[in-house]
Write a structure and sequence with these properties.
By secondary structure, this protein is of the alpha/beta class. About 40% of the residues lie in helices and about 20% in strands. It has 2 domains: about 220 residues, Metal-dependent hydrolases (TIM Barrel, Alpha-Beta Barrel), CATH 3.20.20.140; about 140 residues, 2-Layer Sandwich (Beta-Lactamase), CATH 3.30.450. A 5-stranded mixed β-sheet has the order 4-5-6-7-8. Strands 11-10-14-13-12 form a 5-stranded antiparallel β-sheet. Strands 3-2-1-9 form a 4-stranded mixed β-sheet, sandwiched between helices.
């Protein structure tokens, strides 16, 4: 792995990322907006702000990244205790509004140090607690700068094996300050334990090494797919199946229930309904904002498939037609959501459907006159939105997931892929 080069030592194609950098919201010296400029000038395509034990810098970081066309991934670096080690765990792709995550951040002891040290008393959340909360929030847990945590390789292997048993998803095998031989050793550990290998410079200040590292495309795909899997797993946990054998109420309780409990329950229910009607608009707006953020991030991840395909075309690896066909097939297979039925689709600006996993009958068809049951020419609207702003949210009526006969109000995030004139949503 090499910084600032377009291929690895193995000759594999790479993508420039930086999944570990800090702003002045923790121990960095630069504001998120300044940091993003550095990332842009270094050619970074995807980045995560991983401030220590705080999410405060994420909104401005995300907004700045969007102006420069850099992909955003939610991130944070959390201090945790495992045995006698104070370790740093990088979390990616989580819901920044998750209650348990925010409670942990608020309650935990903030640490601005990047030098792990042995401790004799518990002053932090344990590693198992932190990893569980990251997963519950839909995120991925990665061990930061492993070699800085434990420079003895044999002891480090033991530590990583312990953490994997606790649910660790990967390690920061490509850590900017580490020499290449250390990075290679860490990569071998990751491969042996079937862990994801991530890359980051731990960028803090301007006189630091430049941000951005070139990660092999295959490893980037492993990371991207891991994000999607963690998100889907968390959503499934939120919606567990109903028990097959619910407990039956005994007959002798019926009289007591109807005479005592039912009237009290009705009174309580009326009170709850009153409160619910009062707070409903607030909760609806909050949930909608979270949903919007989620689908936007997932669409950005899917958009990286098109970016990779275009890179292959520019490098002469394949023809434009081959790249477009492979990209369509890849995106066709992507799913997310609690039922693993939410999907991505593609159209051009004419508009013509290029790929739709649940409506192959529309592929290749001109859909400029296609209207929903409210009279909206939805595909024309999609084209107009992205030509005007490059991206956005659109409300319309469409079939429910894979149910062709069920129509429901929907809202999609759509984005323009300029090199091909494609719209993804």
């Amino acid at each position: 792995m090499k910084d600032k080069h377009e291929s690895s030592n193995t000759g594999q194609k790479t993508i420039c990322v930086d999944m570990h950098c800090h702003s002045n919201f923790s121990d960095g010296t630069m504001a998120p907006e300044q940091l993003v400029k550095k990332l842009f000038h270094s050619g970074v395509k995807y980045a995560a702000l991983t401030d220590h034990d705080t999410l405060a810098g994420l909104p401005s970081f995300r907004q700045a990244l969007s102006k420069y066309g850099i992909g955003f991934i939610t991130g944070i670096e959390i201090s945790a205790l495992n045995s006698n080690y104070l370790i740093h765990l990088l979390a990616y792709g989580f819901d920044p509004e998750h209650p348990a995550l925010n409670e942990m951040i608020a309650n935990g002891k903030k640490s601005s140090r990047d030098t792990p040290y042995n401790v004799t008393s518990r002053r932090f959340y344990s590693a198992v607690e932190v990893i569980k909360i990251i997963h519950d929030a839909g995120g991925m847990a990665i061990l930061a700068h492993p070699f800085q945590t434990e420079p003895d390789i044999e002891n480090l292997k033991i530590l990583i094996e312990e953490l994997k048993k606790l649910g660790l998803d990967g390690i920061e095998a490509f850590y900017g300050p580490d020499p290449q031989e250390v990075q290679h050793t860490l990569l071998q550990i990751a491969k042996k334990l079937n862990l994801i290998a991530t890359a980051g410079t731990d960028y803090h200040k301007q006189d630091w090494l430049a941000p951005g590292m070139h990660l092999e495309i295959s490893k980037w795909k492993d990371f991207r797919n891991g994000l999607l899997q963690c998100s889907m797993h968390a959503q499934k946990k939120k919606n567990p199946p109903l028990p097959k054998n619910p407990i039956k109420i005994k007959n002798q309780w019926f009289s007591f229930i109807f005479r005592i409990i039912l009237p009290a329950a009705l009174s309580l229910l009326l009170f709850i309904i009153t409160l619910f009607m009062f707070f409903l608009p607030y909760f609806e707006n909050t949930l909608m904002d979270r949903k919007r953020d989620s689908i936007r991030e997932l669409t950005q991840v899917a958009l990286s498939v098109l970016n990779e395909a275009e890179t292959d075309v520019q490098n002469g690896k394949m023809s434009l037609e081959q790249a477009q066909e492979l990209a369509k097939n890849h995106i066709r297979a992507l799913r997310y959501g609690s039922e693993n039925k939410d999907y991505f689709w593609l159209q051009d600006l004419s508009p013509r459907i290029l790929m739709h996993p649940y409506r192959p009958d529309l592929e290749g068809e001109d859909v400029s006159d296609f209207v929903d049951n409210e009279g909206t020419r939805i595909f024309v609207l999609f084209s107009e939105v992205v030509q005007e702003t490059g991206e956005g949210y659109v409300s319309y009526v469409w079939q429910w997931k894979d149910d062709f006969e069920r129509l429901e109000p929907k809202e999609s995030y759509i984005s323009l892929f300029k090199p091909w004139g494609w719209v993804i949503g």
